[in-house]
Amino acid sequence: MTDNNERIVESVDNNGDPVKVRVVAPTAEHFRDSQLVYNKAFRAALDSGALLRQKLNDHMLKQGIWDDDKDAKYKELSENIRAKEGVLKGGGIRLSEAKAIALELRDLRDEFRTLLSEKNALDSNSAEGLADNARFIELVRLCIVNPDTGIGLFPDQKVYDAQADQPWVVEASGELANMLYGLDTDYDKNLEENKFLREFKFVNDDLRFINKEGHLVDSEGRYINEDGRFIAYRTDEGLKTQDPNEVYFVDRDGEEVVLKTDKDGNEEWVKISLQERKPFLDDDDKPIEIQAEEAEITTKSKPAKRKPRVKKTDAETV
Q1: 242's torsion region: left (phi>0), alpha (psi -120 to 50) or beta?
Q2: What one-character DSSP code corresponds to residue 220?
Q3: Phi-psi region of 16 (alpha: psi -120 to 50; beta: other; left: phi over 0)
């Protein structure tokens, strides 16, 4: 359930057991309490040597952690993303060209996110970043309550810390962040490239690539399963009905692969043509059938004879 004042979160704990909690919108009292936590954390961060945000930026530049090249790349990616979004919004080009632009936009955005996460990771270590995190945790502690009684589930910081890694706590924290900062739960779906790809049925509602028949495929149209493994079907009928009994694994070139286990129990996916090593051939192109154990026994039972050493005379050595 979702509204402006509260949200019900149905999740699980670390054991997979269901957990239901209520996330309430922070009150004025909650904000006052969290601000006190912010002030305390900010002072503690400064006392421990954390840098202010502005000084941290200067420090990153001096240390080459975030330099002019990265800053220029950041701006370049931002401009390219906006330009390609504009092309998709405007239309008027071939669908195939628009699809290529959408895929390129996905790659650009991934690169941008990687660069941005690098900067944000450093920023989170500033005095302000550490204090912001402490304030948010305090709001989480105060705003996650029992869905029936409305009583908070974390009476103190120690209780919260003991359960912070529980799936239901993580999910409820995410819902609170959405409420506080107006985050779009369908953010990825509403990106311009994904709206285009969904509109023209290049991806499904989970933003996974599909073909015209609805099969899961990669970006190049090769069949894959839910786990992203390359697959093929034994028959056309199996392909048509997506019969799981007709599926077999292939490599990216479409050749069937099988799971091979060696004598030590190590598993490896190999081409079916390499499942068993073919015998080597002699000079007449006939298979050489030699058992390794027999060869070893023969070698041990018939040691090579050593030729007797013949002492050379002085005349022979001259």
Answers
A1: left
A2: T
A3: left
Cβ neighbour number for residue 134 with a 10 Å cutoff? 19
pLDDT digits (tens, 9 = 90+) for 48-75: 988 888 787 777 777 677 778 888 998 9
What is the spatial distance between Cα 285 and Cα 278, in angstroms, rounded to a whole number?
Answer: 13
CB count, 10 Å around CB of 178?
16
Phi, then psi, of 279 in degrees rounded to 5? -65, 150
Ranges of each domain in the chain: 6-181, 208-318
Q: Which residue has the tokens 């990216």?
A: 252
List pLDDT tens digits, range 195-232. 999 999 999 999 999 999 999 999 899 999 999 999 99
3-state secondary structure of 68: helix
How much is the pLDDT for 316? 44
Distance separating alpha carbons of residues 121 and 49, to the nearest angstrom: 17
| Per-residue b or e along 13-33, where b marks 16 or more CB atoms closer than 10 Å to that residue's CB | eeeeeebebbbbebeeebeeb
Distance (Å, whole) CA 196 – CA 101? 10
pTM of the model: 0.65
